[in-house]
Each structure stands twice: as C-alpha cells, then as structure tokens.
Amino acid sequence: IRNHTWSYPLLWFFVILAPTSSFVPVADLAFEHRLYLPLAGIIALVLLLGYLLLGWVTKLLEVDLSATTTGMFHRLQRFLTLGFVAFVIVSFTVLTVLRNSDYRDEVTIWQKTLEQAPHNPRVHLNLGNALLHRERIDEAIRYYQRAVKLKPDYAKVYYGLGNAFLQRREPEKALDNFNVVLKLWPNNASVHNQVGLIIYHKGNVDQAVFHFRRSLKIEPDNHLVHHNLAIALAKQDKLDEAIGHMKQAIQIEP
Prior knowledge:
Helix content: over 70%
Largest sheet: none
Distance between the termini: 63 Å
Keywords: Membrane, Repeat, TPR repeat, Transmembrane, Transmembrane helix
Oligomer: single chain
Transmembrane segments: 6-24, 36-58, 78-98
Domain DNA/RNA-binding: 183-239
Protein name: DNA/RNA-binding domain-containing protein
Order of helices and strands: HHHHHHHHHHHH
Number of strands: 0
Number of domains: 3
Radius of gyration: 30 Å
Pfam families: EST1_DNA_bind (PF10373), TPR_11 (PF13414)
Strand content: under 5%
C-alpha cells in the first residue's frame, strides 16, 4: 500500500489484532471482543471512503454550475459527512447501551449467550455456575445436566454437580459426581479434598486420609487441606503428624 492515508487504518487493524491471533486451537469458534479495538481502523477507513465518495460526487455535479451553486454543494458535502458520522455515533451508542444491559449480572449474560449458542456445553456450565453462586441450586443442576448430555466427558460439569448436591445436602449424589471428576481429572486437588471430607463424615477415615494426602501432593500449600488432614490423623491417633499438619495450616494462613 503506497498511499499513507489508506495504510494507517489498515495497519492499525492488523497491528492491534496481531497479539491476540493464534494458531493454537481454542475452545471457541470466535472471540468477538478481539475485534473491538482493531475495528476502529476499519471504521476510520469507511469514513474516509465516504468522504472521498462525496467529494467525487460533488465534483461531478460542479460541472457548468455557478460559484454559488458550487459553494452550496461543498456545504452539502460537509453536512452529509457530519450527518453520517452523527448517525453512526448515535446508532452505536444506543446499541452499546442496550448491549450493556446484558452485562448487568453474571446470570443474565450467560442466559443471553445461551440464546445464541444453545448447544454449547460450556455456556450451560457457566450458567449453572452463575445460578449456583446465587443459590438457585435446582436451576443450576438442570443446566449442568444439559451440559452433560451435550458433552458426557466434561469434568467441570460433574464438579459443578457435586458442589450443587453438596449445597442441597445430598452427599451421596455429590460423591458420585466427584468420583466421575477424579476419573476424568485425577489431579484435581479440590475434588480430592471434597471426596475426603464426604467419606470422613461417613466414617471411612483411612480413605479420607488418602484423599487429603493426594490433594496436598498436588497443592501442598492449601491450609484447609492441612487442617482436614490433621483432624483425620488425630482420629487415627497419629497425634504427632496431626500436630505437624495443623502447624503448617497455621503457618500458611495465620
């Protein structure tokens, strides 16, 4: 591109977009937010084209016209240019305000996203998570279950289901889902801790200790797991080791 006037908007688009471009496969078909800033260059280019087009039309109409008429066409050119810019600004301002209403809370944005992508399991998962945060447990479970139907090996969905059933005070169902997570995602420290807690309260202290140890092997600085392991070890009369883990918990989180 030789003409700098045309080069700058195009260079803006590609230079700003370049850092977020990737050949690495991603979970989403498109990331529209990556185009927000680069599109400023394209918009500038469109405005420039519109201005030049109006100038070209004006020159065609200036043939054999008086100076007064020619001045009128120049004023018309400026008026149409400003009118077009004002129309674009107002239109996109209104659209932005309407779109911002979708972002008023986590549940709303995922509900709107689900309308556009009803068969995307990650959208169902995130909507379920948002509902669970609002303690709308039954609704969350429904969306988790829909996500499982769309993607049966989705470990994060089973994790969400496990947490939902825990909140609904159904530890057996929670344990079933957490066990599925461990088959699909064996190095999940949080799930090992959750499984340990559930089976500890069922009276299986040895297995609880096993899961707490596995959790700490993955995340050795988790003070909550050190605390849980200390309680379980004390139950086994391994008091010295229990005291050691309790001290570690206090050291990590005084």
